[in-house]
Amino acid sequence: MAGDLPEFYFRIRENGAAVFRVDSENRQRRIEMDQIAVVNIRNGEIKPQGGRALTENELAAIRGWIASRQAVLAARELDDIHRAVDHLNLTTQWAQSKASDAQLDVVTDALLMAMHDLRSVLVRKKAERIIGGAGAERTEE
């Protein structure tokens, strides 16, 4: 089993992870985990723990994990947005075909405000992209 264990274990936290070195090569043949660092995924900060200095190997493994984790989180974020679009479509179908007047009274104002806010942001951002793209074309001429 010792051969199957990773060298490092990353315990996911809200904004990153606690990083542990995994050791099973001891007298009791138990798995021991020694915390070596804390990582902040948002700013890339790596804080060594226990007064230790991290080796280049440890730093490389942690940086690799940060890059991988950021890619996973970015993919999840986009997937969440696609799911929100699906959910909006399902909500539309529900409102049109199944919702009672009482149910609609409970959710209509909140949905209208959220959709108005979303539409405003999307229209503004699209206009910025169009204007920004047109400005870039003009400067190239």
Task: Describe what this molecule looks like in 3D.
The chain has 141 residues and is α+β, with helices and mostly antiparallel strands. The protein has 2 domains: 82 residues, no CATH class; 43 residues. Helix content is 58%, strand content 18%. Strands 1-2-3-4 form a 4-stranded antiparallel β-sheet, with helices on one face.
Short description:
With 141 residues, the protein is of the alpha+beta class. Helices cover 58% and strands 18% of the residues. The chain folds into 2 domains: 1-82, no CATH class; 99-141.
Write the layout of secondary structure elements.
Elements: E1 8-13, E2 16-23, E3 32-40, E4 46-48, H1 56-97, H2 101-140
Antiparallel strand pairs: 1-2, 2-3, 3-4
DSSP helical segment count? 2
Poorly predicted regions: none
Q: In sequence order, what are the helices and strands, one letter per element?
A: EEEEHH
| Overall pLDDT | 91
Helical content class: 55-70%
Strand order of the largest sheet: 1-2-3-4
User: What is the alpha-carbon Rg in Å?
Assistant: 25 Å
* Global structural class: alpha+beta
Largest sheet: 4 strands, antiparallel
Number of domains: 2
Instruction: Give the N-terminus to C-terminus distance in angstroms.
Output: 65 Å
How much strand?
A: 15-25%
Principal-axes shape call = elongated
